Amino acid sequence: MPDYAITPPPPPTIPVRGGGAFPVRRVYCIGRNYAAHAIEMGHDPDREPPFFFQKNPDNLDPSGTFPYPAKSEDVHHEVELLVALGTGGRDIAVADALSHVWGYGICLDMTRRDLQGTAKKMGRPWEIGKAFERSAPVGPLHPVAGTGPLAEGRIELRVNGAVTQAGDLNQMIWKVPEMIAYLSEYFELAAGDVIMSGTPSGVGPVARGDVMAASIEGLGTLDVTVT
Ligand code: MN
């Protein structure tokens, strides 16, 4: 072991359903990947090339609580399918991409929408709106061995019992294998990388005390309380 100058931080992990922990290396997030959400955000849903931003691995939070972050008056929920990679590489073919998937989970891409909006207008990076502390509540990972590839199925978010977001995984503009292949042209993917695969329409604000119930067919439900 190297002679660390400071105590190394604990490696970020996502719990695995049935036991164990999945160590996370990088977090890639796709923008505008469901047509109805692209429209609600003021964009044309035609198949423009995909674009990605990143969150920090330690933004992932399996605790089931989401502390309302500082410096925002407009924090939005985005329910998403998380795809975890067990292997990686460069220039992965679409046809081979699913062989790199280790498992799937439910996650929330919590967003300081007001700060993201300002960043967009000024042509600035999105981290201030997207990559803050505990900005990615996440449920347990389900190994693909048990789920099979998830290409369709209802994805939904309820806030205090009322449905706010609803869609189907088959409505993704860029499918999971296409996202993996595309990312691998620009980055070297590796075991431990995770992809947040975009959100269906119906994003909206949360308030302290709200209970978010995120569900994806085959993966159960993730309950997160805003504190
Ligand atoms: Mn998102």
- Distance between the amino and carboxyl termini: 39 Å
Shape: globular
Assigned CATH superfamily: Fumarylacetoacetase-like, C-terminal domain
Mean pLDDT: 96
CATH architecture, please? Alpha-Beta Complex
What is the class in the CATH system?
A: Alpha Beta
Class per helix and strand makeup: alpha+beta
The total count of strands amounts to 18
Low-confidence stretches: none
Number of helices: 6
Tally of distinct domains: 1
CATH fold annotation: Fumarylacetoacetate hydrolase, domain 2
Name every ligand kind in the structure: manganese (II) ion
Strand content: 25-35%
Describe the protein's architecture and organization.
- The model has no long low-confidence stretch (mean pLDDT 96).
- A hairpin with a 5-residue loop joins strand 1 (13-15) and strand 2.
- Helix content is 17%, strand content 32%.
- It is of the alpha+beta class and 227 residues long.
- The longest helix is centred in the C-terminal third of the chain and has 11 residues, at 176-186.
- The chain has a single domain (13-152, 171-206), classed as Fumarylacetoacetate hydrolase, domain 2 (Alpha-Beta Complex), CATH 3.90.850.10.
- It has helices spanning 35-40, 94-97, 113-121, 127-130, 144-147, 176-186; strands at 13-15, 21-23, 27-30, 52-55, 60-61, 65-66, 75-77, 79-85, 101-108, 111-112, 136-137, 142-143, 154-159, 162-168, 194-196, 204-205, 211-216, 220-226.
- The structure holds manganese (II) ion.
- Manganese (II) ion is lined by residues 29, 78, 80, 109, 198-199.
